[in-house]
Amino acid sequence: MQSAAEWRRRAESLEKAGKFAEAADAYRKEAAIYKKNGDTEGAKVEEAKAARISSSVQLFAHLPGVAPRIPSPLAKWEPPYGCYLGGFIDRDERLSSTFNDENFQSHEDPAAFGEKTGKKHASVFCYVSYGRPFPKKWVARLKAQGVAPHIAWEPNDGLQVVQQNTYLRQFAQDAAEADCPIFLRYASEMNGDWTRYGGDANANEYIVKWQLVRQVFTQLAPNVAMVWCVNVIPEKNIPKFYPGDAYVDWVGINFYSVPFYDNDPKRSGLADNPADYLKYVYATYAPKKPLAICEFGASHLSKADGKDRSAWASKKINELYASLPRLYPRVKLVDIFDMDNLKYATPGRQLNNYSVTDSDEVLAGYKRAIAPDYFLSRIGATAKVATTVPLPATGLTVPSGELRISSWARCYADTYRVTYKLDGKDAASVIEPGGREATLTLSPGPHKITAIVTDDKGRVAAKTEASITAK
What we know:
By secondary structure, the chain is α/β, with parallel strands linked by helices.
């Protein structure tokens, strides 16, 4: 039996030779050995290498007459179908509509962000340190615009400050008096060791304090949905911090697309697909809770090399947002992180520029990503759009006439094309990243739809087919 090191050498040799499918298989075999030996993080690294050079394509149909699958029961403020748009906008200098709250924090007006991006957002978030007052002025400003406040409430002095006391109850009472939907993301990213309330040593106390906070808000502030939010890494200890189904309304996750991990040019993230970061948390928690992407940003400028990557960032944004209705329909909120960390992050973390609006190309890409009606601008709304369903290999019957189709594709090449064939004849070809939608015209009778991925040299990288009947 080959060792993990032998599989890696084989994978690297095959990749160098351009035999990407075989190389991906070798990386997966290496990962399986790591996983068998209990090294889940090592396995994840090698699986990511396999994903980076893999090619695949899935077909989807958008069917107006098909009812979406609606979770039952819905969680607090969960839309039946569709995904709320949200974001962090308070350091966007191009909005020029700053106001202050009682914590002396400056905020930007969400209406200005909606005008800039071409679409109103259902929610925006801010950070509040545990011990600081409830941000009444900010919440009132948002409520007046029909925007739901999302508060990242962080016990930065440690879990010992979280007590059943006047401060906690007053914060909850103030939230209740706001009389609007509120998302409360308490003590997020606890699975990492970079906060004073996180890390494995704090897991038991974390759960006790989470349950305490939840009990107070259940009693005093029923308008608040509590969001338990992890970081994408480390993965293996995430379940240690879960407070239990009865104490969590939504499950959140934070992740970013960056050209280089930890500002290290030797650790490239350029080939990563952001949709992959959702896999574990979605598989683990989506069957019972709605998910929120509480922080996502795509860097178009890295401190590591200072190279403009606006096109790359635009692509990453479109890849993630297009994956949500197709692969992750119970992600019901996605927050874009609109901030230049090169300027505004704390020292030591000034590594990337995630701003959406300071690059015309990134802004155009974000506008395109959020344009579909699937992405919601109001809490309590539901997407009144054709339901996105995967096309099976056989057996689907649809009305004759126009059929909107799309795909979820990936390829080892940076740029690639998806070509659709109807009954063997070219019907459409799409190169823009995202859902790659197209419209086919179906006459009554059986049909075969084919999706073909071709790389930047015109070589076929992946292919799939579906048989349907039009009536």
